[in-house]
Amino acid sequence: MCSWCYGFSPAVKKLKENYKDIDLEIISGGFSPYSKQVVDDEYKEFLAYHWNNVNARSGQFFDHSMKFISDTFRYDTEPSSRALMVIKELLPDQDFVFLSLMQKAFYVEGKDITNGAVLAELAAEIGVEKPVFLERFHSEETKLKTNQGFQFSRQLGVQGFPTLLTIDNGKIKVITRGFQDYDGLKIVVDDWLNSQHVPLPSNGGSCSGDTCES
Q1: Is there a smaller number of Cβ atoms within 10 Å at the N or the C end of the chain?
Q2: Contacting residues for 85 by C-beta, under 8 A, at least 6 apart
Q3: In terms of C-beta distances under 8 Å and separation of at least 24 residues, what long-range contacts does 54-58 make, across chains too?
Q4: Residue 108 near residue 122, CB atoms below 8 Å
Q5: Distance of CA 180 to the CA centre of its chain
Q6: What is the pLDDT of residues 168-207, one digit of tens each?
Q7: Is the CATH number of domain 3-213 3.40.1190.10?
Q8: Residue 92 carries which DSSP code?
Q9: What is the three-class DSSP state of 135?
Q10: Segment 101-113, tens digit of pLDDT
Q11: DSSP-derived secondary structure letter, 126
């Protein structure tokens, strides 16, 4: 539910395809967990503005009708993060696939991915039976692990999303902060691989808390 992360996803996909020796792991920082933010007209304009920026930079499609909006919908990113936690435990090699399914469902199809039933449908697409998914999704253990993931992200010093970093012998090195297209990402990844010296480009759009920056 972070629009700049959605914009960044094609670059990450290419990175996985072209740098198979790099073991990429998703850490759900949460972006806006437990938020009570309603999508009223003002917030819808806010989202549309940033979605246009992400589209212009990344080419990613957005359905601006936002069919997920309802009287009960809140822009709470905890449920989708919790769903990803379930998949990482049940099918760890499908975590990026499931993340892509959630992004497509939300931004392209306008589905409410704060809803457990919707998330269970997406999990079923990669072979997880709905009752199995829902049992894990609603468990207190998974809720705790999801919150621990948010805390771990803060411990790593992540201040906005997306952030790509490495942890080597306990040392944290930032590869890139904010959105990067693949060409830009390739430059900094190659530099890191060749010299272990990482520049810190920070001019890309990112999301933090309840806000996004262009």
Answers
A1: C
A2: 28, 142, 145, 146, 149
A3: 54/3, 54/4, 54/6, 54/7, 54/179, 54/205, 55/7, 57/7, 57/179, 57/181, 57/204, 57/205, 58/6, 58/7, 58/8, 58/10, 58/179, 58/181
A4: no
A5: 14
A6: 888 898 999 999 999 999 999 999 888 764 444 455 666 7
A7: no
A8: G
A9: helix
A10: 999 999 999 999 9
A11: T
> What is the per-residue pLDDT for 178?
94
Backbone angles phi, psi at 25, to 5 degrees: -130, 140
CA distances from 94 to 78, 97, 100, 104 (A): 19, 5, 10, 15
pLDDT value at position 212? 64
Question: The pTM is what?
Answer: 0.90
Round to whole Å and give the CA distance between 22 and 15: 9
Q: Are 55 and 9 in contact (CB under 8 A)?
A: no
Comparing 208 with 23, the larger pLDDT belongs to 23
**Is the predicted pLDDT of residue 59 greater than 90, yes or no?**
yes
